[in-house]
Amino acid sequence: MNILAIGCHPDDNELLCAGTLARCAKRGDRVFIASIMNGNTGHRTIPPGKLGPVREREMRAAAKCIGARPLWPDVGGAFLLEDEATRTVVVDLIREAKADVVLAHSPACYHPNHRAAARLVWDAVFTASIPHVRTRHPAVRVPPALFQMDTVAGVDFQPTEYVDISTVIGVKKRALRCHRSQFAWMRSHVNVAMLDTMLVQARFRGIQAGVAYAEGFRAVLNHPLARTVRLLP
After folding, report:
1. Full-model pTM
2. Please, where are the H alpha helices in the chain?
3. Most buried pick, 37, 127, 157, 163, via CB within 10 A?
4. pLDDT per residue over 160-169, tens digit each?
C-alpha cells in the first residue's frame, strides 16, 4: 500500500506516528511523510527566512531514518488558512502519494494549526478522488482510508486502534532527534521536553495495549472511508 502521513509542522509526524510509519516501511509499504507548513515561525531567535530551510533539512533527515519519502509543499507563516489554495495543496499531496491510507491530525489537538490541518485533510481525502478538481497530479481512484493520529500528550483522545511500535522505538527516537532546532524552543515556549514527551506517550499507549510502546489512532468511519480489513500494522 501507499501510506501518507500529513502533519502540520515538520516534527508532528515524528512525535505522533513515526513508529507506525517505520513498521509500514518494514512490511514493504511505500511510505510518504508530509508537512503542510514549513515551520518557519517556530523559534525564539532564528528568523523565518533562515528557519524554514533548517526545518526542511531536519524533516528530510527524519524521513530517511523512517524509510519514507518526504513531501514538502513549503507553506510558510504563522496561520494555516483553510482557503482554496491550501485545500489544493493538501489534495495534491494525497494525489502525489497515490495514498491508500492517510494519517492526519485529530481535530481535538491543542494547536489551532493542527486542528485546521485535521479539517483540511478530512475534506481532501474525498476531494482527491474527483477528477474535475484539477491539481498537479491526477485524481486517485477512490478516497483513501483516513486515520486520526493521537493528540500531543494524548489529551482528549481515545484510540480505537493501537500499533505496537516496541521494535521500532529506536527509529522513532532517531527521527525525532533530527528536529534539533525545536528542542530548546519547545522547552522555553511551552515547557515541553520533546523526546521525554514522546517516550512517555508511547509508553502509556503501550500500557493500554499490553505492549512496551504503542501509538494510538482513530479510524474515520464515515462513508466512504470505512474499510472491512485492518490496514495499520
Report:
1. 0.96
2. 12-16, 18-26, 48-66, 84-97, 112-127, 169-177, 181-190, 194-209
3. 37
4. 999 999 999 9
Q: Which three cell numbers stand for residue 6?
A: 500529513
Q: Is 165 helix (H, G, I), strand (E, B) or coil?
A: coil
Closest C-alpha to 223, from 145, 124, 149: 145
Closest CA to 94 of 46, 32, 156: 32
Q: What is the pLDDT of residue 156?
A: 96
* Whole-number Cα distances in Å, 214 to 31, 33, 201: 19, 19, 8
d(CA 63, CA 25): 11
CA dist., res. 220 & res. 110, Å (int) = 19
Please state, in angstroms and as integers, the Cα–Cα distance from residue 198 to each residue in 8, 151, 164, following that order: 17, 11, 15
Local confidence band at 184 (pLDDT 50, 70, 90 cut-offs): confident
Instruction: Tell which residue, 62, 147, 67, 58, has the closest CA to residue 99.
Output: 147
